[in-house]
Specification:
There is one protein chain. By secondary structure, this protein is of the alpha+beta class. The protein has two domains: about 55-125, no CATH class; about 165-450, no CATH class. The chain is about 25% helix and about 20% strand. The chain has seven helices and 17 strands. A seven-stranded antiparallel beta sheet has the order 1-2-13-12-14-10-11, covered by helices on one side. The chain has a five-stranded antiparallel beta sheet with strand order 3-17-4-15-16, with no helix packed on it. A five-stranded antiparallel beta sheet has the order 6-5-9-7-8, with no helix packed on it. A hairpin with a 5-residue loop joins strand 15 and strand 16. Helix 4 (about 85-100) runs antiparallel to helix 5. The longest helix has about 40 residues, at about 40-80. The protein is globular, with a radius of gyration of 37 Å. It starts with a helix and ends in a 6-residue tail after the last strand.
Length: about 450
């Protein structure tokens, strides 16, 4: 091997002409090998391969990083669009892993960050201030009974027709309360009652009407949509959820609206806090989900459909005529005044660790006017105090807060169709849940209204 290697070195040292002659005499020349054992071509090929491999490695890392970033943005965007569906599941998982108190603290941080983000976004990009500005007007099929005819005779001493009395003329129409504006520059329609697009309501026959109030000067985008309903023409009903508020006590509700109520269904809206988050009482569907307690804001409905709302144990107590009651926190509006307790901290206004009065999030409420008509309210970016001020400005005499946080808040409107089905629409398009979820089985408690004029006189 060494002799051959030496011979090859000798051949390489011969003159070019001799080398060429030898090459021409040889049919298949051998490859010329350098002292390193590699041909120049192979060395060049290896170097080029290393360069390409190095290039491929650099580009593959770069592509991997870019792909990872793109994937993160896509996942973040998808998560944000679905945050209202993801958030409840994430919160339940968090409570199971780190407990209620730590989860409440995390929620407080999250909503504080979201509030700052909303303020910045509004300052830079602006935003919607009228919660109804993008709602479509609903066309509904409403079968009506033939109106009764009453004949009166004027200018005769003979008693031929019916006497002209208030009862003969029929019930007085719904009279909305006078509203007060909080913002110095109101939006068009703010504080103005309108029946536009609401079930079974027209300007000539108004059973329900709506308006909106912006209660927070530092957050002009915070709008509270308020639905006023003639309580003489509806029956308020309550339904315990299959899990809340009594699931931890082993008391589970039906969680559904009975099919026989579909033909008269008008409105449905969310209930109050979960059972463990305050232990607020609820009695409905012939069950006691949570025990009633004195000192709490309470709404009760009697079997004849009449409604009472106030502080339990002070304004009223349990009556045998009641068919359902729901408690939640303390009063927002108390005898026509914003409650002095709306600025309390701790967990008065939401299950959070501290400063629950300034927990800025979606909130909902139910109230009554001085003449007993029903108010259903909800809105974004609210504290307990700003929600109370909105209800007070809309004419609430008594009001209590219901559930909080966007994924849990919805008011559904239901429109009968010619084929007998129901069309479900959200009261405000910005509400996260679908209104049709009230037509399924729900884990959390809720209220609904049916058309019932037995007390309309």
């Amino acid at each position: 091997m060494l002799r051959r290697f030496g011979a090859r070195r000798g051949e390489l040292a011969q003159p070019a002409a001799a080398t060429a002659g030898a090459a021409s005499a040889t049919p298949e020349p051998e490859a010329v090998v350098s002292e390193t054992g590699l041909t120049n071509a192979a060395a060049q090929a290896e170097g080029a391969g290393e360069s390409r491999a190095s290039g491929r490695g650099w580009f593959s890392w770069k592509r991997l990083i870019l792909a990872s970033l793109a994937l993160m943005f896509l996942v973040a965007g998808a998560a944000y669009t679905q945050k209202d569906q993801i958030t409840p599941k994430a919160a339940n998982l968090s409570r199971a892993l780190i407990g209620d108190e730590r989860t409440a603290r995390v929620e407080g941080w999250f909503f504080s960050l979201e509030d700052r983000s909303n303020k910045l976004k509004y300052r830079v990009l602006g935003g919607a201030e009228d919660p109804f500005e993008v709602r479509e007007i609903q066309v509904q099929f409403v079968p009506r009974e033939a109106p009764r005819e009453v004949t009166f005779f004027v200018g005769t001493t003979r008693h031929i027709g019916q006497s002209l009395t208030a009862e003969a003329l029929g019930p007085l129409p719904l009279t909305p309360p006078k509203t007060m504006l909080i913002q110095s520059s109101p939006q068009p329609g703010e504080g103005v009652w309108t029946p536009q697009g609401l079930p079974r309501s027209t300007p000539a026959d108004t059973m329900m009407t709506k308006t909106f109030i912006r209660p927070d000067k530092s957050r002009p985008y915070a709008s509270v949509g308020i639905l006023l309903v003639d309580s003489r023409r509806v029956h308020l009903k309550m339904v315990g959820g299959t899990a809340e508020p009594g699931g931890d006590r082993g008391v589970r509700g039906p969680g559904i609206i009975p099919k026989e109520d579909y033909k008269t269904l008008l409105v449905a809206f969310n209930g109050g806090f979960k059972g463990p988050h305050g232990g607020f009482g609820m009695v409905a569907n012939g069950k006691e989900y949570m025990k009633m307690r004195n000192g709490l804001a309470t709404v009760c409905v009697a079997k004849d459909g009449s409604i009472k709302l106030g502080e339990f144990g002070r304004d009223f107590s349990w009556e045998e005529s009641f068919e359902a009651c729901r408690q939640n926190a303390v009063l927002l509006v108390d005898h026509g005044e914003v409650s002095k307790r709306t600025t309390e901290g701790n967990d008065t206004w939401g299950y959070v660790n501290v400063n629950s009065s300034e927990f800025i999030t979606w909130r909902s409420a139910v109230g009554v006017t001085k003449d007993g008509n029903l108010l259903i309210a909800s809105g974004n970016s609210l504290s307990a105090d700003s929600l109370a001020r909105a209800l007070h400005a809309a004419g609430a005499y008594m009001a209590l807060q219901l559930d909080i946080n966007g994924p849990y808040i919805c008011t559904g409107l239901f429109y009968p169709q010619p084929d007998g089905s129901l069309k479900a629409e959200k009261f405000m398009d910005s509400m996260a849940p679908s209104a049709s979820n009230f037509l399924g089985t729900r884990e959390r408690d809720f209220f609904y209204l049916t058309f019932d004029e037995t007390r309309y006189r």
